[in-house]
Every structure is written in structure tokens, then in C-alpha cells.
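ok trying again, last paste got cut off:
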Amino acid sequence: PPLAEVLAGATGTIEAERAKPTQLVLSGLSTPIALSAPGGRGVTLTGQFWVFRNITEDRRKESLKRTFLSLMSHKLKTPLASITGYAELLTSDPPQGLSPMDLKALDAILRQGRKLSSLVNKLLNFTTLEDEGFAFKAGPMKVADAVSDAVSALHEWLLENGASVRVETGSLQVVADRYLLTEVLKNLIENAAKFDSKPSKE
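nice, full thing came through this time. structure:
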């Protein structure tokens, strides 16, 4: 619709976008004003004073950032899965003749591969949430299910960091996106273990 029609029914802040012939994105902020005739005579008119800022370049940079992060994350995910997968096979059943240094190196490859995989997954989650087309899949669920998913996903990480999780959720139910709630719980568990200075973390 014409900009005048948009402004007539709007208050506060708005964003207006034009796709053709070239993209233009404007961010507008309104302030209520009152106007009266000189000397204070006559009918006082009220209206909105609008200030617009061109944010086209900001939006372009945001789009490039999301595209870059998504592409980088997907390109890294496949080789990382191969690295951690083969490292797990070698550490679980190491070939004969490996020296203690070789075994230590395998363990380091596995630990750092898992760490990098975790960071890549977090980047993917970030780009997914930033996507305007993302839709939450919320529904009734048991908190215990999300906690179980989070603890299972962090099993190896918890062992490596000498941490354990004691779960007491009862039969509590919430309406939430199971995947996102699990990610939140994973971050909470990781932070609790990272910032706990005790040798044994629970």
C-alpha cells in the first residue's frame, strides 16, 4: 500500500520494504505531536512526527552473515562426522603396536572433534533461529523427556569433564518445542559444569 496509508494507521515503530526496482528498507519511529494556531487560538491538531532511517545495508549484511554461517556450518558438519566417527572406532579398538603417545593423540583428536562438532551445531541452531521462516513446533511434553535427551547427548562430554547429572523432574509437563528446550538444557548443563571448580561436579 502507499506509504501515506501505512503511516495513517501506525504508531510507534514500523519497517517498510520495497523490493523493486532496487531493494529499499526503511525503519520508522513516530513521536506524538500537537499543533495549534499561532497565539494558541483555534483547534489543536494532534498527529505523529515520523523519522525514517535507511537500513537497507544493515539488512543486506545480516542476510550475508546468516548465509555465511549456514554454509560454513553445513560444509564443516560432514568432514567432522567422519573425523569423530573414525576416531571413536580407533579409540574403542586401537590397532596393535600403538605407543602411549599415539593413543594420547587419538584421544585428543576425538575430544577436539566432538568439541568442534558441538560448536558447529550451535552455529546451525543460531542460523535456524535467525531465519524468518523458522516455525516453532510447540506442543505438550514432559520436561523429563527433554532432560533425558540433553543428558544423553552430553554423555561423553560429562564423562570427560568429571561431571554427573541428577534428575528430579517428577511428572512436570510444559508446552514447548522439544528440540529447542533440549538445546537450552544442554547449554545450562554445560555452563554448570564449566563454572564449577570442584573436582567432582554434580
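cool. The radius of gyration is 27 Å. The mean pLDDT is 81.
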